[in-house]
């Protein structure tokens, strides 16, 4: 047989990887929102924060890294609130969040629903831990 190399180096194709920007929940149009599930009763529909696919220095993150970050996120944007959320006066003095708020929630909280380009979650009203100004503040704090 001839001399065969003991290793084969495979760098993939030479085409640059297409970088898809994450969905910005603050820019979802009303027609797109109408296509999402409507939370019933005391439930809240949120979109978990999707981090950037590229670092500030221009390095493209692998799909595995992006997916790991997405699964570990605990920050979400409130898309809609069910009609009975925070109505139980024996449990809540006022609403903990409203549409358009960024919130913290438990890592395993809620039902995950896959959509094109990511996922949404439906949480119970009492699964909201806190509200935050922007999601970047939390992610920066965790990484420091």
Q: Structural class of the helices, strands and pairings?
A: alpha+beta
* Fraction of residues in H or I helices: 10-25%
Q: Provide a count of the helices.
A: 3
Number of structurally distinct domains:
1
Shape summary: elongated
Average residue pLDDT: 80
CATH superfamily: GroES chaperonin
> Could you name the ranges where pLDDT drops below 50 across 5 or more consecutive residues?
none
Taking the sheet with the most strands, its summary is: 6 strands, antiparallel
> Which architecture would the CATH scheme give at its second level?
Roll
Overview of the molecule:
- The chain is α+β, with helices and mostly antiparallel strands.
- It has one domain: GroES chaperonin (10 Kd Chaperonin, Protein Cpn10, Chain O, Roll).
- The chain contains 3 helices and 6 strands.
SSE map:
Layout: H1 30-34, E1 43-48, H2 63-72, E2 75-81, E3 102-105, E4 111-115, E5 118-124, E6 128-132, H3 135-143
Antiparallel strand pairs: 1-2, 1-5, 2-3, 3-6, 4-5
State the gist of this model.
The protein has 3 helices and 6 strands, in the order H-E-H-E-E-E-E-E-H. It has helices spanning 30-34, 63-72, 135-143; strands spanning 43-48, 75-81, 102-105, 111-115, 118-124, 128-132.
Structural descriptors:
144 residues, alpha+beta, 10 Kd Chaperonin, Protein Cpn10, Chain O, 6-stranded antiparallel β-sheet, 3 helices
């Amino acid at each position: 047989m001839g001399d065969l190399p003991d290793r084969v180096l495979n760098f993939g194709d030479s085409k640059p990887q297409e970088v898809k920007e994450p969905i910005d929940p603050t820019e979802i149009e009303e027609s797109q929102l109408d296509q999402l599930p409507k939370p019933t009763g005391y439930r809240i529909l949120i979109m978990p924060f999707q981090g950037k696919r590229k670092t500030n220095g221009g390095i493209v993150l692998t799909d595995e890294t992006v997916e790991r970050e997405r699964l570990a996120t605990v920050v979400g944007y409130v898309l809609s609130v069910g009609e009975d959320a925070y109505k139980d006066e024996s449990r809540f003095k006022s609403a903990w969040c409203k549409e358009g708020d960024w919130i913290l929630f438990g890592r395993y909280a809620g039902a995950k629903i896959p959509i094109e380009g990511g996922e949404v979650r439906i949480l119970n009203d009492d699964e909201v831990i806190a509200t935050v100004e922007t999601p970047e503040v939390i992610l920066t704090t965790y990484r420091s």
